[in-house]
Write a structure and sequence with these properties.
The complex is a heterodimer of chains A (473) and B (122).
Chain A: H1 9-118, E1 122-127, E2 132-135, H2 137-143, H3 147-150, H4 155-158, E3 161-162, H5 175-182, E4 187-195, E5 201-213, E6 216-226, H6 228-263, H7 272-303, E7 311-313, H8 315-332, E8 336-341, E9 348-350, H9 352-368, E10 375-382, E11 387-394, H10 415-420, H11 428-438, E12 442-448, E13 451-459
Parallel strand pairs in A: 8-10
Antiparallel strand pairs in A: 1-2, 1-6, 3-4, 4-5, 5-6, 7-9, 10-11, 11-13, 12-13
Chain B: E1 6-10, H1 14-26, E2 30-34, H2 37-47, E3 51-54, H3 63-72, E4 81-85, E5 100-104, H4 110-121
Parallel strand pairs in B: 1-2, 1-3, 3-4, 4-5
Helix pairs in contact in B: 2-3
The chains are: A alpha+beta (473), B alpha/beta (122).
């Protein structure tokens, strides 16, 4: 616009229009630019939208997954809750059972302890070192000591033992020690004394055994009791036998001796009749002596007061001797007699007087109960390395079948021999069986109407010495 | 027999003592009689017999006690003694030693007892 010359109106309009056009153009350009910018922006937005969409999708997937996981979790949680409940219940049941079981175990234990405590014999248990772990009431009473004073202490210090003469039993002979150290399965001391604090001595019978767990000795059990009463009974029995033997034999001895002097003509000759009568008296008296002797033997065997005094014994020589004694009867009855004794039999450890009684009894039975002219065979052999076998066969009357089971019974005599012979005590085979079985042997027989064979088996080292206790038997 | 031997019989049973005295006299022995252990010990220690026959169960003093007392004496330690009893032997009693013998009366004939005495004194 030119200010120096006033523009015409048209000029003015044209100018205005030009200006306007220019402005328009400017605006248009600006708009174009803006449009271009918008396009870019739109494109960016589109891209962003795409990305967002993609993210959204991913999120959706994730959300879906999470939802699944959440469901799973819920399910697991429920299951866990169920399991927890079950566990809780199980635990409660267990708790209850444990309580009950504990209670019943305690009861059982208390019962067992009460049983142990109340046993009528003294009971003492030690561990593997010999330390006392338990004693019962009877033991407390017998030893005169309280459980609390001895538990944990060594047995040897608590229970000093002595023998009959008051000599202390050495530790190695103590039954508990025998079990622990020597490894014996049972150690018994039948007669020891325990001196109590009050100086009273009690005879005790002791038995000790090992306590074995998993093949290891974990301790010992000792059972003991006071045998004062048994001792007294034993003594009374022994006195009875001795008194009986004395009382019964004294008058018999008198008759024996005077009859013997008369028969020997010491106070003048007897006439034939007198001699015969007196002979009857004498022989009957002899039978009475034998009967008394047999009864005393039986009494001694039964009362356990028989003295067994084993020594090396030649069974062959001893048998010869017994046979010689019976030779007269064998001759009188015209019996065929044979005897053989194996040479390889060593000396037996046996009491000769008991062995003699065995052979004597079975042989005299054979002689007595075989008819005139019959046969008797005695053979003695080694049955094996440890045993001797006596076999005595006769062709005698035999033992009736229905009485064979009673033949070893005291005072029993079979019917068929009672008819034939009034002699005999019915004690012989009873004595034989007692001696043989006490010696660790056995006796059996086979018998028919044609004869009898007795088999006596005896161990070579058989007879055990009887305890050397004082007193008269 | 050159010199008459003296036998001391210690026995409470009169009939048995009588039989022993009779047979011993018949066989040429001299006898002393005691009715119980106490008398026996006195007679033994006072008279020193050659041999003693000794019963066990007797009143006043029994045979075992009497034997113990006799054996305590210097002379008595060695005197041959036959325990002549009707008691069955026991471990203690039957232990025969050189000077003590053990016989059961009812098992022994009188004449065998005399033979035994003669054997011991021979």
């Amino acid at each position: 616009m030119n200010k120096k010359a006033p523009p015409s109106l048209s000029d003015k309009i044209i100018l205005n229009l030009k200006v306007l056009a220019e402005e328009k153009e400017s605006v248009r350009r600006k708009l174009a630019v803006t449009a271009a910018k918008l396009v870019v922006t739109a494109e960016k937005l589109a891209a962003t939208a795409r990305e967002k969409e993609s993210v959204r999708r991913k999120l959706a997937v994730t959300a879906a997954k999470l939802a699944v996981t959440a469901r799973e979790k819920e399910s697991v949680r429920r299951k866990l809750a169920v399991t927890a409940e079950k566990l809780r219940r199980a635990y409660e049941t267990l708790e209850k059972k444990v309580r009950e079981r504990t209670k019943s175990l305690e009861m059982a234990r208390a019962k067992e302890e009460a049983i142990l405590l109340s046993i009528g014999d003294g009971l003492l248990a030690t561990d593997e070192k010999g330390n006392i772990i338990f004693i019962n009431k009877t033991a407390e009473h017998l030893l005169g000591k309280k459980s609390k004073d001895v538990v944990g202490k060594n047995f040897a210090a608590v229970i000093p033992l002595e023998d009959e003469k008051g000599v202390t039993i050495p530790l190695e002979k103590h039954p508990v020690n025998m079990v622990l150290v020597a490894g014996v399965t049972t150690a018994a001391l039948p007669a020891v004394y325990y001196k109590r604090k009050d100086k009273k001595r009690s005879p005790l019978s002791i038995m000790a055994t090992p306590v074995i767990l998993d093949r290891k000795v974990i301790g010992t059990i000792k059972v003991f009791r006071d045998i004062t009463y048994e001792r007294e009974i034993d003594k009374a029995k022994t006195e009875f036998v001795s008194l009986a033997s004395h009382q019964l034999r004294t008058p018999l001895s008198t008759v024996n001796w005077y009859a013997e002097m008369l028969l020997a003509g010491d106070v003048g000759a007897l006439n034939e009749k007198q001699q015969k009568y007196l002979d009857e008296v004498y022989r009957s008296n002899q039978r009475m002596v034998e009967l008394v002797n047999a009864l005393l033997d039986v009494a001694s065997l039964e009362l356990g007061t028989f003295i067994i005094d084993p020594e090396p014994t030649d069974i062959c020589a001893l048998s010869e001797n017994v046979i010689d004694e019976q030779r007269p009867q064998i001759m009188t009855r015209k019996l065929q007699f044979s005897f053989s004794c194996a040479k390889n039999i060593s000396l037996m450890q046996a009491d000769p007087k008991l062995l003699r009684m065995v052979i004597q009894n079975i042989l005299s039975n054979a002689v007595k109960y075989t008819a005139e002219g019959g046969t008797i065979d005695l053979t003695i052999t080694l049955a094996d390395k440890k045993n001797v076998l006596l076999k005595l066969s006769d062709t005698g009357y035999g033992i009736p079948k229905n009485q064979q089971n009673r033949i070893f019974t005291k005072l029993f005599r079979a019917d068929n021999v009672r008819d034939k012979d009034t002699d005999g005590t019915g004690l012989g085979l009873y004595i034989v069986k007692s001696i043989v079985e006490n010696s660790g042997g056995n006796v059996r027989f086979v018998s028919s109407e044609k004869g009898t064979t007795f088999y006596v088996s005896l161990p070579l080292n058989g007879m055990k010495e009887s305890p050397t206790e004082g007193g008269i038997r | 027999m050159k010199t008459q031997k003296t036998i001391l019989i210690i026995e409470d049973e009169k009939s048995l003592r009588g039989a022993l005295v009779d047979i011993l006299h018949r066989k040429g022995f001299f006898s002393l009689e005691a009715r119980n252990g106490r008398e026996g010990v006195d007679l033994a220690l006072g008279n020193h017999p050659d041999l003693i026959l000794l019963d066990l169960i007797m009143p006043e003093m029994d045979g075992n006690t009497a034997l113990k007392k006799i054996r305590e004496d210097a002379w008595g330690k060695e005197v041959p003694t036959i325990i002549l009893t009707n008691l069955s032997a026991t471990n203690e009693l039957s232990a025969n030693d050189a000077v003590t013998h053990y016989l059961i009366k009812s098992d022994w004939k009188l004449h065998d007892i005399v033979r035994k005495i003669e054997e011991i004194l021979a």
